[in-house]
Protein 1
Amino acid sequence: MPLTIVRNDITKMDCDAIVNAANNTLLGGGGVDGAIHRAAGPELLAECRTLGGCDTGRAKITNGYRLPAKYVIHTVGPIWQGGGHGERELLASCYRESLRLAVENGCKTVAFPLISAGVYGYPRAEALRVAMDTCSDFLMEHDMMIYIVVFDRGALLVSEKLFADIRSFVDDNYVERHEDNNRKRLFGLFGARKESAMPAAEAMHNAEAAKADFEECSMMAESAFHGAALPTSLVNAINQIDESFSQMLLRKIDEKGLTDAQCYKKANIDRKLFSKIRSDVNYKPKKITVIAFAAALELTIDETRDMLMKAGFALSHSSKFDIIIEYFISHGRYDIIEINEVLFEFDQPLIGG
Ligand code: ADP
């Protein structure tokens, strides 16, 4: 997953570079700056003294010394003054300039804290948005693994309204254990204890459903043989029954008029993973990968279920992750950054691959 949010102490990140939310002097301070200097040791301050400070929105690089990271990129975020003083552009510039230095120094993995979102007062949700948008724009042109490291729990990372909407959607739909109406009906029919009646009842129900499907397919096949004109969409649907996940993905990319690169970048999928999927017709992806493609391709909820099924997965109401995904897809909201911000806020795995 080229861009991801993690909860961690940035000084522990084993990346090529970590980014420091420094001040203009570059001579150390509180917050993440203090933590980085403490973990890196006094040699870091000695090197910083030679740099002559740094302007807001710019960045400078040093060694990482005792840190697991090889480099520290020091950038100076804007102080929040209400949003009307160019704060957004300056903050975006911090991310861009840091990434430019990372590329120049051959870094492949970089971790950022939420710059300006501490003592400098930038609202956290907005600071995260700037971070995610700027990094994802950068990733359209570069191969890199970027971590946005969130340290503390506290103020929301998504808007209050979105958080409240999703929380009530989850509350309305979450079931401890999946119990659909058919099961309930069958328990009633058999009048037996749940545990013992269930397997037999369920097996019978499944057999009935399979029989009905089979009969429907036979009828369709028969009418096809007899020359009855089936609608093209139905013929396509029949042809697609045996399609694998990889075949469905490539077909959908074509249907949507996207290039492969547009699709996997939008899906937050790394190029190497996409090539594997492309070259292996029977590739078995992870669920988070399938969902990322479904969102990037803006599939409907039924198409999403279909694509998941081809990879052996389903969406269930006994999983918060699945309900959150269902919320976004069924509301036609396909912004992967937003989906991941919400998943992170709800302590769920992020989508991508
Ligand atoms: P700024 O002055 O740019 O606001 P701060 O250091 O005060 O910088 O805070 C920036 C962000 O870094 C805040 O969201 C804060 O919670 C976070 N932070 C503080 N310590 C760490 C740490 N050790 N690892 C990661 N993030 C941290």
Protein 2
Amino acid sequence: MPLELFNTMGKQMQPFTPINGNTVGFYGCGPTVYNYAHIGNLRAFVFQDVLKRSLSWLGYPVTHVMNITDIGHLAGDSDEGEDKMVKTAQERGQSVLEIAQFYTDAFFIDMDRLNIERPTIICKATDHVQDMIDLIKRLEDNGHTYMAGGNLYYDISTFPDYGKLARLNMDDLKAGARIDVDHNKRNPYDFVLWFTKSKFENQALTWESPWGRGYPGWHIECSAMSMKYLGEQFDIHTGGIDHISIHHTNEIAQSEGATGKQWVRYWLHNEFLVMDKGKMSKSAGNFLTLQTLVDQGYHPLDYRYFLLGGHYRSQLTFSWESVESAKNARKNVVQRIARLLETSGDYSADPRSNSAVATYLDRFRQAIEQDLSTPRALAELQGMIRDTKAPPEAVCAAVREMDKVLGLQLIEEAIELNKASGQARAESDPRIDRLVQERAEAKKAKNFARADEIRNLLKNEGVLLEDSPAGTIWKRSSGERS
Ligand code: AMP
Ligand code: ZN
């Protein structure tokens, strides 16, 4: 069965066929690096990772491009509010680039902790301003722009398809007045391509351009960088659902307005992670980070497991109870795999050597092929490792396969667990335990000579005794037992 994906463009499931043979060009909107990513943002990046892993696993080599927004993203997505980067830099008394570097590093630490594979290409907006200027020039040549009040705007009335992704209606668009209307705009949905008369006196980073010294609007970076690295037409573009009506809508107007061609084939959007109390946002300051979860005793992979338990197109509600059950579920899975590994010895068998295991793998694949259903895929994994009739050798090998998509480090974690319990077993020594017990009894019977004799005997073997209120503890250089 072919891979089927839900395309926001057209709002339907579609068989996936790449433009160029089997290889896939995939652009995912990256983070705005003015603060730590919150766990909602991280849902978007775990989703991108699962999509990329799934494509690779299904035999499509992927070029995954991710941008880092380090300029121009205003608090509102449609040119209103302050510049997020500049605002944080001013608050902290640091430069915009220092802020960007700090939070970019923090972002990749989170990515690593969540076992998210590095995108093939990571591109910063500040490194690509010339590409943006070149693209804006093409839009100007094609008659899509106008200057007003010192800024260069995109005139959406010149792009009849405007709003096709979000199914916005042109009449509604004309009527749709915004709260913060920029009076320079001919239409409230026109948007800035290049700011010269900055709304913000202290705009830190500016560049020369044909329209004067200034800086780009937020949306142009994604059009410019995606086409630079993936060509004018590519396969997949992703982001959270909040990007559909403005950011991605404007990206389409820019890219297709410049090239006159269809830009992206498949648009995939992840639903939001919400808190019990509603939306989580960086700007509102009410957000949890991955570190908050770690501080509460959770492993980052517990959070990944929690996310995989929901389909990417369903809203997911975060609660401490649900992350607790994800933690327990992951622990059980790893423990089971650890036991299976002890029996099988390794995971190098052919997973299809057993027909029951092959069936689990087939159903796992079908779940992924049907719009990346990770909840169903996880259920197949769970069923397989609980199936006492399935041979451990084939099961362990199939776990390895499934984990290429899930990215839960299941085999690695199970090996670690077995190593830790093996070490514990090696460090426990019944003979020493018996001698320690005998010494305690000798002391109780005031037979101090025997007690000292045992202490010295053990000392000569490199075992030290420490009397504590909880009893006697013995120590070797490698560990400690009581
Ligand atoms: P930002 O760093 O604000 O540009 O957002 C990074 C990504 O996170 C974007 O794809 C957003 O659509 C996505 N996003 C923002 N908030 C949430 C949320 N609560 N749940 C899921 N995705 C989100
Ligand atoms: Zn984008």
